[in-house]
């Protein structure tokens, strides 16, 4: 084997090892990736029960019901569709009806979204970028939001 052939063999072997390592990392991360959906998108995609995703929208006014042992039921709406949510735990301080929220969890067999994490919007001028983009896409974005300072914040520190 000439010197050039050895060098090409070493480079090829290194690239092969790097490709295998990248494939293993991506395969391991595939199960932990969580996608964002609105209630309309969740209905259109017909997401199967048990598949984790993030659900974003506005808490439907009049839908908040508190139960025993920190159990909370409410509905998330995006203007076109509404999805019931069940959560057990302490809600963020900024959580209230009519406000933006992102919940992470999975649908159960009855079509109720069982959330294990609930994130409320950061403050009165913050809306998660994914929620704002979904509202714009569906035509529910109001042009005066930008005038009021409700444009999506570039800081995504409150979301996982």
From TrEMBL:
Binding residue positions for heme: 122, 126
Which branch of life, at top level? Bacteria
List the Pfam families. CcmE
**Where does this polypeptide localize?**
Cell membrane; Membrane
Keywords per UniProt? Cell membrane, Cytochrome c-type biogenesis, Heme, Iron, Membrane, Metal-binding, Signal-anchor, Transmembrane, Transmembrane helix
- Mind listing the GO molecular function terms for this protein? heme binding; metal ion binding
Is Metal-binding given among the entry's keywords? Answer: yes
Described by its record, this protein's role is as follows: Heme chaperone required for the biogenesis of c-type cytochromes. Transiently binds heme delivered by CcmC and transfers the heme to apo-cytochromes in a process facilitated by CcmF and CcmH.
The record's section on PANTHER family has: CYTOCHROME C-TYPE BIOGENESIS PROTEIN CCME HOMOLOG, MITOCHONDRIAL (PTHR34128:SF2)
Q: What is this protein called?
A: Cytochrome c-type biogenesis protein CcmE
Source organism of this protein record: Bradyrhizobium archetypum
The record lists the lineage as: Bacteria, Pseudomonadati, Pseudomonadota, Alphaproteobacteria, Hyphomicrobiales
């Amino acid at each position: 084997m000439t010197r050039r052939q050895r060098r090409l063999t070493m480079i090829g072997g290194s690239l092969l090892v790097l490709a295998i390592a990248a494939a293993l990392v991506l395969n391991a991360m595939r199960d932990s990736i969580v996608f964002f959906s609105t209630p309309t998108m969740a209905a259109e995609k017909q997401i199967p029960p048990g598949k984790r995703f993030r659900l974003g929208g506005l808490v439907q006014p009049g839908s908040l019901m508190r139960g025993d042992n920190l159990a909370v039921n409410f509905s998330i709406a995006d203007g076109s569709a509404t999805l019931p949510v069940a959560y057990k735990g302490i809600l963020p301080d900024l959580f209230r009806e009519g406000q933006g929220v992102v919940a992470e969890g999975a649908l159960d067999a009855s079509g109720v979204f069982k959330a294990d994490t609930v994130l409320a919007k950061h403050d009165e001028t913050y809306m998660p970028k994914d929620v704002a983009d979904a509202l714009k896409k569906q035509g529910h974005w109001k042009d005066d939001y930008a005038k009021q300072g409700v444009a999506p914040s570039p800081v995504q520190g409150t979301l996982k």
